Amino acid sequence: MIKTFWRTAIVALLFLCACQNKNSKYELKTGESNGYSYEYVTNDPLKVRIYTLKNGLKVYLSQYNAEPRIQTQIAVKAGGKNDPATNTGLAHYLEHIMFKGTADFGTLDWKKESVYLDSIEHMFTHYGTLKDSIERVEYYKLIDQVSNEASKYAIANEYDKMVSELGARGTNAYTSEDRTVYINDIPVNQLENWLQLEGNRFQKIVPRLFHTELEAVYEEKNRSLDNDYWKTFETLYSAIFTKHPYGTQTVIGTIDHLKNPSITEIKNYFDTYYRPNNVAICLSGDLDYDKTIALIDKSFGNWKPNEQLPTWSKVDEDPIATPIAKEVYGPDAEWINIGFRFNGRNSEDYKLLTLTDMILSNSQAGVMDINLKQKQKVIEPSTYVDELNDYAIHTFSGRPREGQSLEDVKKLLLEQVELVKKGEFEDWLLEATINDLKKSKIQGSERNWSRSNDLVMAFTNNIPWQNYISETDDLRKITKEDIVKFANEHYKENYVVVYKRSGKDPNALKVDKPAITKVTLNKEDKSPFHETILKNKAEKLKPVFIDYEKDIQKLKMNKEVEVLYTPNTENELFSLYYLSDVGSNNNPKMNVAVEYLQYLGTEEMAAEDFKKEFYKLGCNFGVSAGEDQTYIYLTGLSEHMDKAMQLFEKLLAAPKADDEALKKMLDGIFKKREDSKKNKGTIMFEGLMNYGLYGPKSPFTNVLSNRELREVKADELIDIIKEFTKTQHRVLYYGPKKGEEVVASLNQYHTLPDQLKPVPPPVEFKMQDVSKPAVYWADYDMVQEEIMFLSKGDGFDKTRMPISRMFNEYFGGNMSSPVFQELREAQGLAYSAFAYYGTADKPVGNDLFYAYIGTQADKQPEAMKAMKGLLTDFPKSEGGFEVARNAILNQIESERITKARILFDYETAKKRGLTSDIRKDVYEQVQKFTLADVQKFQEQYIKGKNYNIVLIGNREKINFKELKQYGEVKELTLDEIFGYEKVQKIDLEKPNQ
Q1: Phi, psi of 216 (to 5 degrees)
Q2: What is the rounded CA–CA span in Å between residue 731 and residue 622?
Q3: Is the pLDDT of residue 223 over 80?
Q4: CATH class of 553-749
Q5: Residue limits of the Peptidase M16 C-terminal domain (predicted)?
């Protein structure tokens, strides 16, 4: 025993030394402050301290003072793979239930409520044993009755109300195969209140309002069944993993398990894995290390660990000896996925896999980027690495061009792998790729979300922090020969290919809706715990508003072109924008010209060589054409800005026409147009929404017809590109150079004509008055229906912006809003439901209002009736109003608009004719508003309005009889929605009437 002990200790010591000396730049050290010991790593760019409390809880803290907020992520080292095979979906169920409160909050009387909850638990256990369908229906009615009695003691969404009051943003959670993570972005002055709240909810699970939340999970499952990407993903994983839970089960669970949930098993999962020695609190932001760890210890220190925490054992998969082919059918366009299996995130495979992936595809100069994307051989060729703990998957994707089969795409994708195996990529690409990864790390360090996510990944992937932050530097030890060897060893006939084909899914499934009765919400009530949080007043933060005269330097370059300048004092990255007030509304060919530019070179340099040169410099350029503005941008490492500008300007000044590239590009556009007609999201949120607001002529349909597109000539697109810098525009710069240096570089390299041409007058599209309501619908093979109520608002008025923000926060903006509570929490009618009053983005525009429901087809009548009721009869809640008011005030007090955001905030304000930060008006007026003011706004701008309704769903499942009560029902063809076929002539001198 003694020999064994010392042998183990020596091995452990050698391993620790190896970790520490792996990269001497990053050495693991220990420190102590204010009575707490911690670990840190030398030269850590994120300045992370890692604490371990006595109960085993890990705490990762990273200080970043960009704004007085903290991004919080609480990570549980357990996910879908930890679900028992007989009860899949437990981890995901539990994620939902974690928002329902505890014995201390979310309840009016825990002692009485708990009796009902215990009964419901036993009833669900019995329900799972029933096989007869009629008997199940009848017994579920009993569950529904008892659940309604239990709901009388529940305070719905009290957790969401509390975090909203604190000023939290982005409240959410996710469950993956390996982890479950709970997310909030909070003001720094609310850290103690947030910790008190989280410390309570992580120590006891209470599955209240279970059967309505079960409905939400059903809807989430149905949404996945409607999603061809999700179905392809699941098919790929089930073929790659025939033994491991990554493939043998899914995170959301099987339909059979969803129909027979076990509250007892969910509780057991919580008791097993939601323990401090299996959890990490990962914070990044404007925090004080000593105060933060003391507060965390205060709220979480008494949390009991699980001394018998299960040890996960990796399930070994058999090698894939020959290609495995699968097919998935659905209404969306066709594509292909090819997956190769590797060892997991915390393995030596990962570094070589990362580099191989980037050499193949880095969005600029990878082997696939040049050979397939630049040469237009495949639509949207790409690769990505799914970083799972036990394994990783290298996935290749692509869409076919017209006349191309999925098998052709597969051949082209695999040919790129063969080139890497032969070493047929340029030597400089490896170094450039590593620099690109390093640049991405620097960009990530500018965002608290990215920083905290790094902490989560290191913890849940069991990677020592010194190893995690040294990974990019470690890549420099890898040679081209290493990559070639790795590729030859790992990319053989050992892959799975999934052909996603267009057509009716023969295996289409859905989770049926059980009958449930609307539950009590007790929206006005507060638990004693909630009252305590409210009484614990945090020291107020002072809001900081932008002063457009002081915070932006307004410089001039040659020809009096305005240069808006904000310095980057944090790192060596820059962003340079040329901005013109000319967009696709002025000329539908603008979008075509913008796309054409990426395939062009000059007389001296081919298009692909431009891409390569920019990548070598650690820079990137692009063009984005909006409806009324166009950006040309250049970003990257500041030390190479001048060289990149010279390349950039040469291309803009003298692009060389390429007729072959144009023909391929147009063929690709035609194919993408056909593909977009098969995309549910595009049909609904772009096509139908625009039709419902504008009618047949809208910014969305203001495109070249297919005939007009075919007639486009290279020279006219070249002229549009050249005209950009010859027309009035302005320059936006964010970077480390001084203002005079930026102007000097612009004067030297940004070529301008003797006289800049004036910007043509804007083209405006008028929203239609809904004098006679209509229901526009499109047929789509899907389980759910997606429905939207739409109305035109009044003309722009900046004085309406504060009250509209107050209305949005109160009415439909979050999980504690009436829209969400009524449609999802009380009645289980939708997984997703929200409403929004949008302010026009320019003085000549109109506001708009929309309300969205994503619901199961057989719930359509109830869901629409419920939404219409909310739009008609204003739901009054003094408590909800105070939650919304506090949310806005706390958000504004802790919000800081910095970096390049200052420039774009100014541009947005100027476009509306504003000369000051509108948030100041919002902040001042929100403090004075009453619930009566919000009701008055609703009565004036929402209630009594006529609404056009747009809907996408399966014609066999749509209830047309019910739809008729909302207006004249009209089916729209895809050609009517998209406007590609019809030749549209729009008067560019006058607004569209």
Answers
A1: -65, -40
A2: 15
A3: no
A4: alpha beta
A5: 264-435, 714-868
- Do 705 and 982 contact (CB within 8 A), yes or no? yes
Pairing of β 28-33 and β 730-735: unpaired
Q: Mean pLDDT, the chain, as a whole number?
A: 92
Query: How far is the C-alpha of 418 from the C-alpha of 401, rounded, in Å?
Result: 22
pLDDT above 50 (res 671): yes
SS3 label, residue 374:
helix
**What's the mean pLDDT in 86-100?**
92
pLDDT > 50? residue 197: yes
Specify the DSSP class assigned to residue 532: H
pLDDT category at 253 given cuts 50, 70, 90 is: confident
Q: Where in the chain is CATH 3.30.830.10?
A: 64-274+511-535, 324-447+457-502, 553-749, 774-966
Task: Tell the burial category of 14 from Cβ atoms under 10 Å away from its Cβ (0-12, 13-18, 19+).
Answer: exposed
Asked if residue 163 lies in contact with residue 815, where contact means CB atoms within 8 angstroms, the answer is: no
Start-to-end CA distance of the chain, whole Å, equals 89
Among 516, 481, 556, 447, which Cα is nearest to 46's? Answer: 447
Type and span of the H or E element at 170: strand 169-175
Rounded to whole angstroms, the maximal C-alpha distance in the chain is 91
Instruction: Let me know: does 398 contact 409? Beta carbons within 8 Å.
Output: yes
DSSP 8-state class, residue 841: S
Strand-pairing partners, residue 41, are 28
Which of 987, 910, 977, 913 has its CA nearest to residue 586? 987
| CA gap 9, 20 in Å, rounded | 16
Residue with the bigger pLDDT between 457 and 254: it is 457
- Give SS3 for 764: coil
Query: Which of 487, 494, 225 lies closest to 349 in space, CA to CA?
Result: 487
- Model pLDDT for residues 673-718, shown as the tens digit of each residue: 999 999 999 999 999 999 999 999 999 999 999 999 999 999 999 9
Rounded Cα distance between 91 and 577, Å, is 45
How far CA 222 is from CA of 219, 253, 460, 887, 993, in Å, comes to 5, 12, 29, 32, 41
Q: Do 959 and 951 form a contact (C-beta atoms < 8 A)?
A: no
- Rounded to an integer, what distance in angstroms lies between the CA atom of residue 381 and that of residue 379? 6
Indicate the fold that domain 64-274+511-535 takes in CATH. Cytochrome Bc1 Complex; Chain A, domain 1 (3.30.830)
Structure tokens at 91: 């981890």
C-beta neighbour count of 477 within 10 angstroms: 9
Q: What is d(CA 520, CA 150) in angstroms, rounded to the nearest whole number?
A: 9
178 contacts 81 by C-beta, under 8 angstroms = yes
Q: What is the dihedral of CA 583, 589, 590, 592, to 10 degrees?
A: 140
Q: What percent of the chain has pLDDT over 90?
A: 84
The C-alpha atoms of residue 958 and residue 345 are separated, in whole angstroms, by 45
Does the domain spanning 324-447+457-502 belong to CATH 3.40.50.300?
A: no
Contact 94, 266 (CB under 8 A): yes
Half-sphere exposure of 361 (CA within 13 A, CB side): 19
Report whether 308 contacts 346 (CB < 8 A).
no
Give the ranges where 445-519 is alpha helix by DSSP (H): 448-460, 465-469, 471-475, 480-490
pLDDT number for residue 3: 34
Read off the pLDDT of residues 25-58 as tens digits, 9 standing for 90 and up: 899 999 999 999 999 999 999 999 999 999 999 9
* Res 982: pLDDT: 57
Containing 906, the helix (H) or strand (E) segment is helix 900-911
Q: Is the pTM of this model over 0.85?
A: yes
What is the separation of C-alpha 415 from the centre of its chain, rounded to a whole number of angstroms?
Answer: 32
User: Spelled out in words, what is the top-level CATH class assigned to the domain 774-966?
Assistant: alpha beta
* Residue whose tokens read 């030269």: 43
Query: Pick from 947, 449, 894, 919: which is nearest to 693 by CA?
Result: 947
Q: State which amino acid sits at residue 990.
A: K
The CA distances from residue 572 to 327, 439, 443, 951, in Å, are 47, 10, 10, 48
